[in-house]
Design brief:
By secondary structure, the protein is α/β, with parallel strands linked by helices. It contains 8 helices and 9 strands. The strands form 2 sheets. It has a 7-stranded parallel sheet, sandwiched between helices. It has a two-stranded parallel ribbon with strand order 1-2.
C-alpha cells in the first residue's frame, strides 16, 4: 500500500524471504531507494519438498511406478511451479502447465485459456495448484470437478478460493479422486472431519517445510547483518 509506505519515513531496508510479492510495490520501493533483500527460492524449495513428501505419503511404495507413467498438471509455472517440476522430473513423468508464459519449458506442454485448462484437468493424473489468488484466478476451478480425470490426485499449495476444496474432498471420500493434499483450504473446513488416509490437510506450512524454515531464518539474519553495515 503506497499510503502506508509514505508514512514509513524512516524505512530504509525491507526483507522479503518468500516467493509471493504480489502485495509488495517493488517499483515504489525502488523509487524511494529502499534496499530490498529478496530470496524466493527458499520457500519455493520448501513447497516442492512438501509436495514430493506428501505424494509419497499417499502413493507409498508405489510412488515411483505411478509417477513414471503419470501426467503432472501444474496450475501456474512461477517460482514454485518450476521448483516442483525440478523436484518431480526425476520420476520421468510428463508435464503440462497452465500458464500465460509462451514456452515455460521445452519438456512441458503449455496450456492457455479455458480450453487449455480443461484439457489439463482431463489429462492429468496429478494436478498441482500453485496459482496466485487474483481476479483472474478466483474461483477458477469451481464447478469444474466433473472435468477432472477420474482417479486424479489434487494438490493445492497456493491460496484458498481457486479450487473448490469442498468438492475435491467429497470426491476423494467417494473414490472419484485418488487423494487430496491441501495446504490451504476454506475456513469452514475442519481437518478433524476428514479422517481418511488419502486426505492430507495442513495449516499453510508448505513454505517452511523441511530445511526451508532454517534457511529462511539464516537469510533473514544475513540480510539484517548486511543492512546494519549499510
Amino acid at each position: 500500500d503506497i499510503e502506508i509506505l509514505n508514512n514509513l519515513k524512516k524505512l530504509e531496508h525491507i526483507i522479503i524471504p518468500t516467493g509471493g510479492i504480489e502485495g509488495v510495490s517493488i517499483e515504489e520501493l525502488l523509487k524511494k531507494r529502499i534496499k530490498i533483500y529478496h530470496n524466493p527460492s527458499i520457500t519455493s524449495k520448501g513447497v516442492a519438498d512438501y509436495v514430493t513428501h506428501n505424494l509419497g505419503n499417499i502413493l507409498g511404495s508405489d510412488m515411483a511406478e505411478v509417477m513414471n507413467r503419470a501426467t503432472i498438471g501444474l496450475l501456474g509455472f512461477g517460482n514454485v511451479g518450476k521448483e516442483i517440476y525440478e523436484s518431480l522430473k526425476r520420476y520421468r513423468c510428463s508435464f503440462e502447465a497452465f500458464t500465460r508464459k509462451t514456452d515455460p519449458h521445452f519438456e512441458i506442454n503449455s496450456r492457455k485459456g479455458t480450453s487449455g485448462l480443461l484439457n489439463l484437468l482431463s489429462n492429468s493424473d496429478v494436478i498441482i495448484n500453485t496459482l496466485p489468488l487474483n481476479k483472474g484466478t478466483r474461483g477458477l476451478l469451481y464447478e469444474k470437478n466433473s472435468q477432472i480425470k477420474r482417479g486424479a490426485l489434487i494438490v493445492s499449495v497456493s491460496r484458498s478460493g481457486i479450487i473448490d476444496d469442498h468438492a475435491v474432498l467429497e470426491d476423494t471420500i467417494r473414490g472419484y479422486l485418488t487423494g487430496a493434499i491441501l495446504d490451504v483450504y476454506s475456513d469452514d473446513i475442519n481437518p478433524d472431519d476428514y479422517n481418511n488416509k488419502n486426505i492430507i490437510l495442513t495449516p499453510y506450512i508448505a513454505g517452511i517445510y523441511g530445511m526451508a524454515l532454517g534457511d529462511l531464518v539464516q537469510f533473514i539474519k544475513k540480510s539484517i547483518d548486511v543492512a546494519s553495515r549499510g
